[in-house]
Amino acid sequence: MNNSVSVPTAQVAIAGAGPTGLMLACELRLRGIDVVVLERRPVGTVGESRAPGINARSMEIFTQRGLAEKFLSSGKVLPGVLFSGIPMAPHRLDPAWPSALILPQHETERILAARAAELGVRFLWSTAVVNLHQDDTGIEVFLERPQGPASIRADYLIGCDGGHSSVRKISGFPFPGDEPVAFWVVGDVYLDSPPDGNGVFGRNERIGTYQISRAESGLFRLSLMRATPPADRTAPVTLDELREVMRDGLGTDYGLRDARWMSRFSDGFRHVTHYRRGRVFLAGDAAHTHSPIGGQGLNLGIQDAVNLGWKLAAVLDGTAADALLDTYHQERHPIAATVLQLTKAQTALIKPGRQNDALREVVTDILTVPEVCLRLSGILSGLDLRYPLGDTHPLLGRRMPNLPLTTDQGSTDVFSLLHRARPVLIDLRANGSTGIPTPWTDHVDRVDARLAPTRSSSPWHLPVFGDVPAIDAALVRPDGYVAWVNPATQPIDHHTLTAALTRWVGAADSKLPTP
Predict the structure, then answer these.
(1) What is the DSSP letter of 398?
(2) pLDDT of residue 396
């Protein structure tokens, strides 16, 4: 007999109210999808810096959704990029290189949670996913709540519940990878005698690279390797352990008085083989775990969410066929694999040892080569990503630059056109002749615009990309990536435009051609 209590149904249930789950919930609500977020914790993250680095691509995403000012007003702009703590300055080579941001994770969650509530996302706090069953019509998610067992019926379940994901384990996703061999402690701590007043980013032969840096008023962000493995790597970190690790590795605990938050991480790396199993998807750390060196985790999760959200919405509103959802794995899995490889290299470089010291010196020198700096900065910033959407133009499959535009309604820019998370067809032709075929007119926003005169010649010089052939029309997906372009001065290719609309906007009803 089932004694569970049912809670309201939803089109999409999201397990996890971290940055990934919150961003996905916002994306779905922008498209009118009914969403409920299931979170094991009684409240969101409180006072934890955790993942404080928001890379340039994530900042572009927040700009595309009208959230950038909220982040900028709370964070600190970081124009450079770090490779294993080694600074790179791509903006010196390309002045238009977008900036990153330093912001404690609890602030990121606060901004996204407020936006989700504003959009009408429902939250079930103190709610753990304990089992699930899916069939041809939906998925039953079994929950444990303070009031007792419960369940919810949804069309899809998305596991955004972190590295120890219950959704991943219950659903049986294979999660291969490397077992950890080295361990670090991390925390936001109060120090009575901080080094050099504001902290230090240093390195020694016992624990390699370590960080003690001022995070917020009175608080220091601490990150250092244990010289010996912990007796129990699953146990919570204590103040006594922090003091022991600091004294062992640094010779002093700098008057460690208290901590607001403490945790540990390792050099273990894992990546699911597939991001989808039927009606269950994984995103963020639930799909890929790695050391935080390089600050990629939060950003991968945000970008997973923005890739998946509009696709789920298009299928749920009957516009697109189910096959569109398979492109989530096809596009995001290779990106995470590349990032994990780079993160492994960065993690190796912070470890102690004379050989690593020598390698670090060589890498530091190599990073001064402009081509190397721009290449690695592009990957770490998320700006160099290219989805396999074709090779007929350098912009195809890449993020659409935030070009300034003039329309009959006034001045705007590309990112402002994406605030509603809908596909946008931008027509830069003087005669506005790039029409949307009738079946798609209700599903795509069409904008007639003009570029500033300095952008009207060929080739264009664009930030990050360099020189590219000019275009006079582009179909931009809701996640900001270019799905179709028409080269400047050439007649509109209606065949390729129709193919792109069919592939990315959908062909689920009888009025649309089948793929």
Answers:
(1) B
(2) 97
Task: Indicate the CATH number for domain 183-266.
Answer: 3.30.70.2450
Per-residue pLDDT, 506:
86
Best CA proximity match to 79, nearest among 107, 105, 59:
59
Residue 42, classified by CB atoms within 10 Å of its CB into exposed (0-12), middle (13-18) or buried (19+), is: exposed
Sign of the Cα torsion 316, 320, 322, 327 reads: negative
Quick: pLDDT tens for 8-29.
799 999 999 999 999 999 999 9
- Asked whether the beta carbons of 456 and 463 are under 8 A apart, the reply is no
CA torsion through residues 407, 413, 418, 422, sign: positive
DSSP string, 341-375: HHHHHHHHHHS-SHHHHHHHHHHHHHTTSHHHHHH
Whether a cis peptide bond, with omega within 30° of 0, leads into 459 is: yes
- 404-504 is classed CATH 3.40.640.10: no
Q: Calculate mean pLDDT across residues 386-397.
A: 95
Residues of the chain with CATH 3.40.30.120: 404-504
Q: How many angstroms separate the CA atoms of 89 and 220, rounded?
A: 25
What does the angle CA 154 – CA 167 – CA 132 come to, to the nearest 5 degrees? 50
Q: What three-state secondary structure class fits 453? A: helix
Rounded to an integer, what distance in angstroms lies between the CA atom of residue 238 and that of residue 233? 12
